[in-house]
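Protocol step 4 of 6: structure prediction from sequence.
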Amino acid sequence: MATELRLPELGENIETGQVVKVLVSPGDSISPGQAVLELETDKAVVEVPSSVGGTVTGLYVEEGQEIKVGQLILAVEAASREAEPQPETQPPVETQEPVVAKEPAQLEEAVGEVELAEEEPDAEQELPKTEVSPAPALDRPPETPAAIAPAAPSVRRLARELGVDINQVPGSGPGGRISMQDVKDYVRQLNTQAARARPLTQEPPALPLPDFARWGEVQRAPMSNIRRTTARRLGQAWSTIPHVTHFEKADITELEGLRKRYASKAEAAGGKLTVTAIILKVVASALKAFPKFNASLDMANQDIIYKKYYHIGVAVDTEHGLLVPVIRDVDRKNILELSVELTQISEKARTRKVTLEDLEGSTFTITNLGGIGGVNFAPIINPPDVAILGIARASREAVFKDGGFEPRLMLPLSLSYDHRLIDGADAARFMRWVAQAIEQPFLLSLEG
């Protein structure tokens, strides 16, 4: 009896993938754990193993096809009775109708613009309208005077204009009296709840495009899963995180000399002693000195999550798109070890051999464009991180030092940070610490 092999769960929030390569054919003998497909998810290319052994009797996918978790991919004639087929009554995933969750109604951002002073009951003022559907009876006079919310008529009018039930607003005044600020705070709370209810994968409506073919020849190419995910995640990061970028320069004249001197030692160990490898160690020490930069924001619970581990993501440019593999426990490794690991994980990313585990769990991110060029740039934060360090190309500059100008090799650095958690002064101190540690490595032993 043939066993149906379906696409297993591949990781958190991964529902689909594109078949890159089919590794078996009908008639092939396979063993449990043997890879049968290469699948490109929204994070990486992964191998899909077989859960059973036997002979392939049916193949139901092809290269380039988009398939879902649970979809039938192979039929296998089991080699022994130990292989238990899935129940035949299980319907294929592709025949099931998807369930689409309805988005909750959300109040407009009118509250932040409403600046009303306490006024007389007969004063009228137009306020922004919102589409909210309160219960029909909420604004009708209650049957008993005891149920009347303690609020001035002007406050009641503000609540009506904003579409909220005054009886549901907690009052902060004496005896629970409700002020205009209480109403505004309540509406902001509703906005936050509605925002949390919206699916994270939901994208804003696409703007209509003109017919480009009117002006010349065009060619369409589908976005890869990695490119679609990059576009979605960076779009969300830019629209939900208040970005600020701080720029700095570090004098790496002496550091470059040391890097060249010990480069052969790193090569002998199987790595490459790059500026990124060195800065990985510097940043890990800086994160210990400034724990806020190694944190994440939990806006749903209004908490700051401080992490006691130091896993740093490094952006890698590949022909398939931008990937950010993670170097774990950077604080526990020396620079030679980091050089080897960075070399290996970058090669895995470029050859599409990174696993989902390789791409998860970062606490901070570094991106280096210096090998390509550029004076400076402002990178976009990689959530749930709260900061990202950008490295541009170093160049010789005339620097005034010891009473005169001399050529120094200066490295441009940029730090984009989440202004909800990190203030400008925090960023300036962090960047000065990083720059000084690059210029004076003794600081790593002194303070790191």
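Step 5 (inspection) to follow. The chain is about 25% helix and 25% strand.
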